[in-house]
Amino acid sequence: MKKQSDFKLLSVLCVIVLVFLALSIFAFSAEKEKVEEWISAEEG
To answer: Transmembrane ranges (predicted)?
Structure first.
C-alpha cells in the first residue's frame, strides 16, 4: 500500500516538473521573440 502512494506522489511530481519545463521553454521563446522585435525596431 505504501509503495502505491509513493508511486502516485512520484508521478504527480513528474507531471509538475514537465509542466514547469514546458512553461519555461514557452516563456523563453516568447521573450526571445519580443527581444528580437525590439532590436529590429531600435535599428530602424
So the answer is: 7-28
- The span from the CA of 34 to the CA of 20, in Å, is 21
Across residues 2-22, what is the average pLDDT?
Answer: 94
Enter the C-alpha cell of residue 11. Answer: 508521478
- List b or e across 6-44, with b for residues whose CB sees 16 or more CB atoms inside 10 angstroms: eeeeeeeeeeeeeeeeeeeeeeeeeeeeeeeeeeeeeee
Grid cell for residue 27: 516563456
Predicted TM-score (pTM) of this structure: 0.62
